[in-house]
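Ligand-bound model needed. pyridoxal-5'-phosphate.
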Amino acid sequence: MPIDKMTQMAHLLRSRTLPAEIPIFNLTRQYQSLKKEINTALRQVYANSQFIQGPNVKLFAEKFAHYCEVRYCIPVANGTDALYLSLRALGIGPGDEVITSAFSFIAAAEAIVNAGATPIFADIDPLTFTISPDSVKTLVSSKTKALIPVHLYGLPADMDTLINIAQQNHLAVIEDAAQAHGARYKNRPSGSIGRTGCFSFYPTKNLGSFGDAGAVTTNDAALAQKIRSLANHGSGRSQYDHTDSGMNSRMDEIQAAILNVKLGYLEQWNRKRRQVAQYYSQAFSGISELTLPVEPPDRKHVFHLYTIRTPRRDLLLNYLKSQGVTTKIHYPAPLHLLAAYQKLAYASGSLPESECAAQEVLALPLFPEIKTSEVRRVCEAIKTFFKN
Ligand SMILES: Cc1ncc(COP(=O)(O)O)c(C=O)c1O
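Prediction:
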């Protein structure tokens, strides 16, 4: 039977029987499992009422620096600010170019533009979805000042090769580790390899807050101090002494209290993500039409997203929807072809791997609290689709 007919019939059947929908993530389940601890932590914040620059933020900075094996962590308001503040602190601005991946969330490109510099988009490696060092090499110019690799979906980029290119060309490397808390490259934690590491604690991330939050990690004391100051209105030695025109990008005490609780579970959650990923990969290993996520031997993937690719992506998405399986496309368009960057005049076809990935990728439900029965249902639905 043709797939569209099959999808139609499945829709009809489902509307009669309605099996429970499998979400792509479920934050309520996570809250339920930590309710007591989180509520206690929050009650302490309310009682203390030091909502800005309080003890939880200080504790989180220490704990997260330790987790990432770096000397400094600067908690900030979100991951996009972490990237922007890194660029500002490195003195990158108008007239400068910064190379980043064309296949990612828009945040790194936005940070570059907001710093006054120009984003230069590089293509990706089609198997790892991370920035292609070969593409980067062709883009370095006398104006290039920095490189922002993105550890997309939880897999670190090819850092040694990128650091080599950066050293040869005097570029700063800023890691976009927003999707890669706990990932490792040659046993080094993501966020500990570049000049700075930039994290997002957006609620659905592997480590997520109850709102927006982010952090910068670094081993550079002067850079840490500069970022800390810029994130707090460019503050100097005393109140109302401002050495820079900065911004307000402070993590608040409520988010820090939640993150302090959740950080204790991150390793366990990442283990569960990896187990589910392994289960999916085994189940799909015989499906020749599917390209599965890879984990090169020198890297540890933390599966923020389990992303498959297939040329029949849209048909598969609709079929899975009819089966009550939620999926998501991260990302439906590469950055160089977005309306936001039209002025940069990239032609369609100029970054073919990024453009092809945008047509083929599909993220499946994966979160630490997913039930075995749900994982099995996802597998069965996908196997059924590819049998037809
Ligand atoms: C790869 C990547 N970089 C940066 C960000 C920006 O983080 P935030 O949403 O906290 O600003 C995100 C968040 O979605 C992301 O996925």
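The mean pLDDT is 96.
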